[in-house]
Every structure is written in C-alpha cells, then in structure tokens.
Amino acid sequence: MIKLIATDLDGTLLNENGQLHPDFNKVFKALKSKNVKFVAASGRQYANIIKTFKDIKDDMFFVSDNGTFMVCDGEETVISFIDRDKANEIIEIARNIKETYIILACKKCAYIENKDTKFINELEKYFEDYKIVEDLTKVEDEILKVTLCDFLGSENNSNKYFDDYREDLQISISGEFWLDLSNKGANKGVAIEKIQNMLNISDKETMVFGDQLNDVEMMGRAYHSYAMENAHDKLKKVARFKAKKNTENGVVEKIKEIMEIYV
C-alpha cells in the first residue's frame, strides 16, 4: 500500500507553464482521505514552492533547494549548510564561466550580484525572495547551496568546471540552465529518507516522480519510482517505471491509476 508520494515540480508535476493540472486538488483531497502523505520536492526556493500550493500547504510536506531544506507539519529542518570557504571557491570559479550567473540560496533569502534582465527573468521563476549585493563572497548568511544559472547549458558547460569537487560536494544538474552545488549528502533522496523514518514508511510504501538528474537519489528511496516520458535518459535508466510527459499530466494520471482515484 502506498503511504507516501513525493514528486519533483518543474518538468514533472507542473505543466509547461509551471502550473498544476485542474485535477490535482481533487486528487490531493482523495489522497488525504486515504492518509497518504504528499511531498513536493524541488530545487526551487521554499517561498516560491508554497505559492503553487497555498491552499493546501498546511496539509503537505516540502523539500526545497534540492534537499538542503525541508518543512514537515510546519517544522523547518535544515539538512545541511555549505562551508563558507567552499562556497567562496565556487563563486570565484563561476565568475569566470561564460553566460553563467551565481545565486547563493539561503534559508530565508537568496543573494545575487548581477542585474542582467535575462537572468532576473529566469531567476524569478524559481526564487521568490532575493537580494542584490555588491559581492557574494561578503554575504553574511548561512548558505544552503550555490546555484548557477548557465545559459550555455549546465550539463555541458558549467558542470565540467567542478570535476575536482565531486568527492566533497553534491553537484546536481537540475535543469537545462541550472546547476546546484551543496554539501555531500544533501539531496532529495536524503530528505525523503528522513521523512520515511519520521513516519515509519518503507521504500515499498513510497512512490516518487522526477525528470532530471537531481531526482536520481530520490528514485533510490522508493520501489515505485517513476521517470517522466520527458525525463533525462540517465534518470529513465534509474527509475523502475515510466509516467506520461508532464505536458500530458503524467503524475496525476499515474496517481489516479495506481491509487484507484476517480475524479
């Protein structure tokens, strides 16, 4: 029996316009009646995620910033802060990568040092609260992760600049333009495991959905692991099952099918 469902948002639960399908709230209500816990797990900032679920946010769990921060029953938990010196090293490297912009993701706010319109437009899709500063290396705040917005493509451009850091850091390709760098062991999978332990729910009682490489670890926490039809090929190899494209409401349709929900 499924007791826990966790899903990524962009490219997974949300459509191409970043919106929920009209059926979602009905399905969520049905899941709640079955005592199934629902988790939104995203690379997005927490303040941004809850806008999508504002009417039901008190009845669900959240994993934000690629697993570095979570909120369960209103209780906030920081999985890990990245070392300040390590963050500064990343900043110095990233400043020299073409078409790449840096974001320091902190608990209550994100920090940037560039006002480029193209970057700001992309940033505001995923970050609700941010401040522009003169120098990111001088920010006095605890850092969840360093995020890079790479308009040349994160997988083939900025990703390669951090090969020497892979033993020490969690480096996740979160989307076409996005690369996240956090402490080793801070990812969506670790966050889902903490929720499972909290609720005494097993992998076989867990269902997860994703589309990008930052969902790989989450796939490992559930027997019922689904890669979207539009998912990265490497994720499809990790997941046990497939769901239709996010543009075809794949997550909601699969939940309705498996959980026998008729709305």
SSE pattern: EHHEHEEEHEEHEEEEHEHEHEH
Strand content: 25-35%
General shape = globular
Tally of strands:
14
Structural class: alpha/beta
Rg is: 18 Å
Q: How many distinct folded domains? A: 2
Nearest-integer average pLDDT: 97
For the record, what CATH class of the largest domain applies? Answer: Alpha Beta
In CATH, the topology of the largest domain is named Rossmann fold
Which architecture of the largest domain would the CATH scheme give at its second level? 3-Layer(aba) Sandwich
Low-confidence stretches: none
User: Number of helical segments?
Assistant: 9
What composes the largest sheet? 8 strands, mixed
| Strand line-up in the sheet with most strands | 5-4-3-2-1-12-13-14
CATH H level of the largest domain: which superfamily? HAD superfamily/HAD-like
N-to-C CA distance: 20 Å
Percent of residues in helices:
25-40%
Detailed description of the structure:
The chain is an alpha/beta fold. The chain has two domains: 150 residues, HAD superfamily/HAD-like (Rossmann fold, 3-Layer(aba) Sandwich); 100 residues, 2-Layer Sandwich (Hypothetical Protein, Haloacid Dehalogenase-like Hydrolase, Chain: A, domain 2). The protein contains nine helices and 14 strands. An eight-stranded mixed beta sheet has the order 5-4-3-2-1-12-13-14, sandwiched between helices. A six-stranded mixed beta sheet has the order 8-7-6-9-11-10, with helices on both faces. The longest helix is centred in the last third of the chain and has 12 residues. The protein is globular and about 55 Å long.
